[in-house]
Each structure stands twice: as C-alpha cells, then as structure tokens.
Structures
1.
Amino acid sequence: MNLEELINKHGQDGVIPLFVHSDGNFSGPDGIKGRWENYEEDQSKILLVSDDGIVATCPIINLVNEDKVRSAEFLENRNRGYASSKSPRMTKFKVITDFPIAFDSPDHLAPMGTAQDNFSNKVWIKNIVDLFGRKRKIRILDLGCGGGSLVKDLLEHTPYAIGLEGSNYSIIHEREWWPQFHNNNLFTCDISRPFSVEYDNELFLCDIITAWEVCEHIHPDRIEGFFKNIYNHLRVGGVFMASVSDYSDESSDKDGNIYELHQSAMPEKDWHSAIESTGLFTIKEYNKSIGYVRKGKFLLHLEKI
C-alpha cells in the first residue's frame, strides 16, 4: 500500500493517523513510513515522501504527533510561522518569519556551501568572549551558519548563541550539528527578508552578529534589508563582524542548471558605500589580532549607530 492509498483508506473525519517524529521522519499504519519537510508552496501543509517514493502533501491539522504536548507546540509553531518544527524546542529561542527557507536563493537551488561548510575558530571565540562577556554571558547570532560548528563551540561559553541558515539541506541530510541543535540553537530562515529572533518571548538583541563569507550571497536588491535585519538584532553599541569575498562562484543543480552563488560580488569600497547608504552603522577597522572564522577577501567591523 502506498501513501496515497493509505490516506484514502484511513482518512476519516479529517484525521489522518500519521505520526510526526522529531527526527524528521513520519510513520503510520500498514507499515508506511518516510521523511517529511516544510511544503514551500503552502505553509499550512507539509510534504511527505514515503520510503517507496510516493510524494503527497498533508494539512498540518490532520497530523497526530508523538504526544499531546508536542502536538500542541507543533501546531502553535506552524501557525506563528517559526522557521521549522521538526524537533522539540528545548531552548527559549524562536525564529518568526514568513520565509522559513530561502527558496529562491541559488544556495538553496544548487547547494554547495550549505552542503559543505562547517567552520569555527576557538581562538576567535575565546577572544570575543573575553571582550564582550566580562560582565554577563555574550549574546551572539551567526548568519549563514552552515553545519553549525561555530554555534556549537559558542555554546561552551554561553547559552545565548543561535545560528540561521537559508537552506534546509542540512536538516534533510542530517548534516553535522543539525540533528542535535535543530530548532534549539540552529534554525532555517531567509536572512535577506524580514525575520525576528526572540529569546524568552522578547526580541533577541545581540552583542555580536557574524556572517562569514555570506554577504556576497545576498541579492543586490536585498542588501539593505539584510543590513536592517542585522541592525534590528544588535544592541546599541553591538558589533557586526564578517568576511566577504569579491569573486564569482558558480554551482549547478542536479539538472545541470548553473547558478551564480556570489550574487553581490563587489570590491570592498562598494560594500562600504552600500553600508554607508543605509545610515545604520559606523564602519570601523577590523582588529585582526582577535582572529576570524573565515578570512575572505576582506573583513568588516560595523558598529550600530
């Protein structure tokens, strides 16, 4: 029996007896099982892919979860538009957005960095903690967090560390630190569009926001919105640290379509002009003695005005 036959057989009174598991799998009667993920065309549904290759969509309200508590949380999260709800949320972080995946991003359509990158630097982390965490635990957001190693290493020093990634590739492929920290400290979100990170139901204001080899991936038309998101999540005096590359970088999807990943590859002076035009930040010289996670062509140090 395939998935569609199962739904036709067991669907009664609008209830389909499928169990949604926190690891991204689903199961049901007659031995049906498979994977599930967000359905990009309709956020009121999820996409089910059974082990026998049958694909179907299912309304959120028709799902039965593993327990009543998690089911209620699952429904609430989906209704409020959180980035994802595939695993139980153990921390107090929430990501609220209408764009839980960067569906039109070349990095999602032809995954390369999101499928391979997993950078960290414990020396840089120690220096940052020493600079910003003397009086209280440092609060930090990593944009384009890849496999999540930087966030994982930061959690050894502070509970207030969160990473956002545009593609759900690492969720689907259970890559690196996503199985452990997904929906706790790692979330998916289109960082070029409006989003809000909350901690304990309040806006999460950071000491530091980072983006290592990420800025050049943002479409030129969304650069201002990207920096507004950063501004909105920095405390007064907060710092944005980033590395930027200025060269072309292409990747192809499984059908051979070629995509330019570095949509905003441009020299440092043009980035400075774009940043200054927002009126949101003061550009400072990056102190290389503290280190960095990725060097790129040049480094950025911005302070919130």
2.
Amino acid sequence: MKTYDVVLKRLENRIVQTSNMDQYECTFQVPSFIMGEPMFALEDCMLYLYMKLHRNGYKVQMHPPNLHVSWRRYDDAPSSTPLPLSHIAPSPAPSVPLPLPAPVPLAPDLRMENAWPKSSKKNSLSLEDLVYRRQHEI
C-alpha cells in the first residue's frame, strides 16, 4: 500500500497542476514500476486509485494503464479546486484476493501439443547429432 500511496501522491500532484491551469480533467498514466519501491500489480494499483478518487467525488474512467480523472461539476459553475486527498486514511489491503476469470479453452489445432510436429524415430536426431550439425553447418 505504501507504493500505491506514492502513485496516489503523484496523481494528486497532477490534478493540482492541471487545476492550476483552469482545466477540469486530466489523464494520468499509472507507472508499471517506480524506482526504489517494491514491485506492484498495475491492475490492483489502478483499482486502488479509482476507489480513492471515486470516494472523494472525482469522476474516474479506467483505460489501462491510464486513468481519466474529472472534477467538473455539472450542477453549478465548474470548480477549479479539487478536493484534497491527503486527509483520506489508506484503506487496508483486501484480505481475499480477487478471483481470476476462467481460462478459455483453445481450439484443438491451437494447443501447445500441436505446435511442434510429432517426431518419429527415423526422423529424430540425437543431441550429439544436432550439436555436430550446428557446429559444422550441415
């Protein structure tokens, strides 16, 4: 979560900079890694950022690896000041990992066992024969 908070801080800085230019939306590319920080799952980080921003009233669209963030208010005059994110306490990591989608079975002709031709005894070469042919370019 500490790494996600580093990314969140970068996103917050981007929002403030964009807001200072009288704009009401921005796109942020979530980095796949940060030097000096532990590796993290990009999808989990994007979900963390989405939840933090959405809870604080931002409109967020996910277009991996990008987040499109809007703080435009349509009910009254647009506000150029986004809500601060620093007062939000970090949420705990989910105790149960999210389920992965079921794998899609491949057609019989696309399976790995069909990727290489079947070898027969008379056509197969030993490792020594392959090394010799490679060295002598036969």
3.
Amino acid sequence: MVHAPRPSPEDTIRPNPLDVGEDGCKDLKSHCEEEQRPNYWKPALEVILYNMLLWSNSKYISKQEWANISWETIRDNFEEGFVWDPNSFSGNQLSHPHSGAMYLSFARANGLDFWTSTVYAFAGSLMWEMFLEREHPSANDLLFTTIGGAFLGEALYRLSDMVIDESARGLQRVFREAFALLLDPAHGIDRLVSGKMWKKGQRRSKHNLLLDLSFGAAGMLIYDDGHPDVLLPAYGMRIQGMLNDIGIGRKVDPFDFFRFKVELSFTHTPFDEEIDTRIQGLGMTVTEVGLSIEGLLVGGKPERMDGVLGLFAKYSYQEGILTDKLSDVGLGFGTSITVPLDSQSRFFLEGFGAVYSILGASSARFAERYGREYYLERGEDYFFGSEMNTPYYIGPGSSGTVETRLVWSDVGGLFVRFDTNHVWSIFGGGASEHVLSSTMGLELRLIHDWSLVPQYENLFRFSFFDGERIQKECHVLRFYVNYRF
C-alpha cells in the first residue's frame, strides 16, 4: 500500500472519507455499538432464512441436482460423515467464504461480538452441509466457510458500517445505505428488515482509515520452464486500505487494525490460459482477480511503539494468469510499525511483517499441464477441482509477508514487498506448490491527493510432484495513477 503524507500527531484519528460532522457515539467502535443490546435469536433466524433462500434458488430455479434433498439424503449425510469436496476452486475458496461472511454479518449487525458471531458462521455452514445438499458434507467447505468467512465478514462488516450515517438525509443517505448494502449484503438486509435504513440517528464515529484507489496499464511477460509463453498488455484497478482504530490503554477488539486489497486486471488480447472468471459480452478477459484481508486478532499497541503487535488473521483469494490459483486462511504473528526519521515527521519509515500457518489451496500445475492420467498412472489423484477440470491442491502450509516503505511527505516514497506461499497437498506423492513474489516501486506525488505509481513485480512458482519439478516465472510492469481518499 502506498501512503499519503503522514498525519500530524493532533490528527492521528482521521475521519471516514464519507463522514460528515462530529460523532455522537462515545468511541471508535462500530456504529453506536455500545447502545445496541445483543440479539441472539434474530441472526439465527436470518441465517436459516438465508440458507433456505439459496437452496430454493438452486432447487427450483437453477435446477441443481445436489439440491434434490430428502429425509433419506439428510440421514445419509449424518451416517457417512464428512468427506473432501472436489468442487471448483472459485466455488470452494470464494463463494463459500462469502457465505460465511454473510452468516457472521447477520450476527454482528445484531450487536454480537466477533467471537460469538463466528459461531453463527460455523452453524450456518454446518446447516448447509448436513441438511441442504444431497452430496456428503464437505470438510473443506466447513473449514473455509467458517474461518475464511469470519475473517472476510468482519472486514466487510466494519467497512460497510463506516459508510452508514444515520444523521444523513436525502440522496446522501440513499447513497450511503446503498453502498453499505453493496459492501456487506447481510448488514444491509438486516438494516432493511429492521427499519434502521431510514431511522434517524446520530452522526458517524471517526476512524483512522487510509484508502487508495489505483488504476492504469500493465505489461505481463510469462515464462513457463524458462520459455517465453505469454506477453500481454493489460489494464487494471486496485482498491486497498488500512484501518487502525487502536489506541494506547483502550480495549482492543479483533480487526480494530486490518489491511485489505482488491485487485482486478483484464485484457483485450486472446490467450490460451484457463481462467474461471470472464467478463462476457465486453470483449475483455479477466487476467487476474485478487482479494486479501489481514487483521489483528489478538494484540494491541505497545506503549513505546508507534504501531501494533500481535496475532494476525489472514484470508486471501487469487486467480489468474499470473498466480494461477492461490487461496488460504491462516493465523500468525505480525507487526506494523512506523519510525519517524526527522523531528517534523516529514521523513519516516513504515513496515509490516507477518508469518502465518495456513490451510491453503493452490493450482495443481502438473495436472494442468499433463492431465489427470499423469497422476492416475502413479496411483495418485490431485482430487480437488476434478469435477470442473480446474485442478488444485488443498493442504497445510505457510505464508509470509514483509513490506517496507520510505516516505517523504512532500514528494512521495519508495516501497518494497516480499510474499511467500507454500502448500503441501493432503493427497499426492509429495505434491506441493510454492509461490515467491517481490514488488518494488515509487510513489510520485502529483497534485493534492493524486500520485503516479510505477511498480515492477516478479513472481516465481515452483511445483513438485513425485520427485519432478516444473517452474513458472512472471514479470509485470505497472503504471498506475493513485487517489488517496
């Protein structure tokens, strides 16, 4: 993330970019959260109705075979127990966590804290797996829906809640409520059915939120086992931000500090890579989709440190021509720190680092290249994605991030980032996928909150199976224009 000039000490708490006026709430918490009594039954009913709505659509409108349930299929699910689900990568790693996010947000919108709301994510997923599918319940779906959904859902709930201002009127109120509904549908639906969408209330609380919108062009050069494979011109956009509502001596709740990034790249140039997500009818093909959340779960702000330290939670999803398929949920220790380099805070160094233990999903590159028969001949099977011909592994692993930037408030800054991701398949003879990436670039301030951001990215993917290795290398040069809200 490229930062704008460092705020002055008296302006440490920045207003939400959509804020108006002063706050009527007492603290930096969610929208007047202190005044809302927890309601345990209403979100339970909302989760059940939401699941039934999804099932009804699959059963009666899209006519999905797996939705043809009966008392016999429910009994069979309890008798057979959990299995590993071979469905598509995007369905298992993105759609299911998003459903988990909805479950969690129903609870958060009714005054429950993060930890209690996570129980609703688990219960909603368990209900779906045991009762609403004729297929055997999926262990990987339950894990990614609960854990990934909790991490994604908390971030979406907080972002949508920051948009809401119950003191606003007219078109501004309509815009805020509609945008909050778009960010977190569960939160918006709860506000709609409860009448909070049009209820008059207090002004928004302030939050220390940094938000960047970037867009521009990129060139992508991809080598497969050392041979040039694809050279693509592309366009892209990126939204990234950081919330830091942690203060010294104040109770710290999960995700009072979190970072997020959403990235999309697309091209007009045809190519042979198989990517699940495509923009139909516009003559464009999506080359890369990315979403990442990293939030402080347990920890805080040490008294003599300008930063945070503790146990972090992570959810990420990436798919495209560069990263192939890559997703994980994880826990690890990390820190974010700022070090002033002069007395006026015009020069300063910022850093973020975290190391995670993960449950990950990653492309099965040997299967993509040689097909399923390559595995079957060796008595193995990559298994996941086999129903949709989108092969990937699931298994334990690790990931890490180190990011640092040197900032000169009046001019811009330099930034460098390193990421690693390692997944060992729970199936397959020593099958594993390893991704190493580095990014370096400049922020050159233009006028006001606008800046030019040229950056270079380098990515290596190493794939191992049965003692063999294949390698992929990507080089990307981006020229983005960035606006800081």
